[in-house]
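Folded chain entry
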Amino acid sequence: MSTAPHLRRVKTWDEGGRGLLPVAQLTRRRGSLHRHEGKRVWAELGLLDEE
């Protein structure tokens, strides 16, 4: 798939699309890079003592 991941509303019977919501809630930043060899998805976590 060549599109960037995005948050979407899923239905009960959908088999996919649930992973980005918890990632968005638990990380400081996230994104994706598209290269000729494929897509790379990344996320940054905050440290516990950071506000």
